Amino acid sequence: TKRAGRNGYHFFEASMNVNAHNQLQWLQDLRMALERKEFLLHYQPKFNSPSGQVLGAEALLRWQHPTHGLVGPDEFIGLAERSGLIVPIGEWVLNEACRQMKVWFDMGHEDWTIAVNLSALQFAHADLIDLVKDTLSRHGLPARCLTLEVTESTAMHDAENSLKTLQKISDLGVDISIDDFGTGYSSLLYLKRLPANELKIDRGFIRDLADGNDDAAIISAIVALGRTLNLRIVAEGVETTKQQDFLTSVGCDALQGYLMGRPMTPEKFLEATSNLQNS
Ligand code: C2E
Ligand code: CA
Ligand code: CA
Ligand code: CA
């Protein structure tokens, strides 16, 4: 009936308003979050395979929201990207990660690297190279201690300009890691020209990994490709010893995942990794 229709419409409209309000509220909260110092970084260890030596950490953004508690990046990175707020937030991340890495460096972990994720918007931002250079020198951190992770799709978008940006990053002495590899559409020709140091196999391939299935074959192929192009191959999202054994057997150079270490506070990170190295 018309009435039911109207009710339906009103209901829909009401929920839309709730949604719109939520979005607006989240955006307002996000705008204030930097100033209110609500962001923090967790660090997930990365290990050499097969030696198990700690290679460093990936910095992963968290938001301590005043009412929602600890919020993960999947909940707000999209909004940060759409609103442009990811640029100042990303600046904060880079600075904080380099500051923390310098603390570890001064403690004697001079061979560690800190990996920082770059959003597509940051990657396209004209000031990126100066920002990276200035951040490193502000902390007195050698460029080799920093790795920047860009997703395969970000690196593929506007390929010619991406290559130029990646080359400038590489010229600084900063390593480049191609994240979520296998989900984009890189051509072999493009990969060959890419001044990258590392390919990070997308977690999806590792999650669905089983003996002799397609994902196992794809992973082996990516490792072979990495050998040919002289790129380090990293597997992330390693949750089981079975996955670990497979990835080691096909020759992945480094592993990351809940099995070996979750993202954690810098204090916990140091504790966990020093326990490992002393044992
Ligand atoms: P990513 O760069 O692919 O990071 C890996 C994600 O997988 C992280 O989720 C990590 O906690 C999670 N992970 C690691 N090991 C395992 C595992 O064994 N099993 C499972 N199920 N998950 C695992 P997180 O921290 O929620 O981050 C999600 C995404 O948010 C990241 O994906 C990255 O794209 C983005 N992100 C995180 N921090 C930043 C940042 O500072 N800047 C930007 N632009 N993006 C960020
Ligand atoms: Ca990453
Ligand atoms: Ca990834
Ligand atoms: Ca991802």
Structure description:
It comes from Herbaspirillum rhizosphaerae. This is EAL domain-containing protein. This protein has helices spanning 2-33, 77-83, 86-106, 120-124, 128-139, 152-156, 159-171, 188-193, 203-207, 214-229, 241-250, 266-278, and strands spanning 39-48, 54-65, 69-71, 113-117, 146-151, 175-181, 198-201, 232-235, 254-255. By secondary structure, the chain is an alpha/beta fold. It has an eight-stranded mixed barrel, surrounded by four helices. Strand 6 (175-181), helix 8 and strand 7 (198-201) form a beta-alpha-beta unit. The radius of gyration is 21 Å and the shape is globular. The protein binds ligand C2E and calcium ion (CA) (3 copies). The site of one calcium ion (CA) has 4 residues, from loops.
Write the layout of secondary structure elements.
Layout (H helix, E strand, L loop, with lengths): L1 H32 L5 E10 L5 E12 L3 E3 L5 H7 L2 H21 L6 E5 L2 H5 L3 H12 L6 E6 H5 L2 H13 L3 E7 L6 H6 L4 E4 L1 H5 L6 H16 L2 E4 L5 H10 L3 E2 L10 H13 L1
Parallel strand pairs: 2-4, 4-5, 5-6, 6-7, 7-8, 8-9
Antiparallel strand pairs: 1-2, 1-9, 2-3
The protein binds ligand C2E and calcium ion (3 copies).
Overview in brief:
The chain has 279 residues and is an alpha/beta fold.
How does the major sheet shape up?
8 strands, mixed, barrel
Secondary structural class: alpha/beta
Helix content: 40-55%
Q: Which blocks of ≥5 consecutive residues have pLDDT under 50?
A: 1-12
Major sheet strand order: 1-2-4-5-6-7-8-9
Gross geometry: globular
Strand residue percentage = 15-25%
Q: Can you give the mean pLDDT?
A: 91
Task: Determine the N-to-C terminus distance.
Answer: 73 Å
In total, how many beta strands? Answer: 9
Radius of gyration: 21 Å
> What small molecules accompany the polymer chains?
ligand C2E, calcium ion
H/E element string? Answer: HEEEHHEHHEHHEHEHHEHEH
Q: Number of DSSP helices?
A: 12
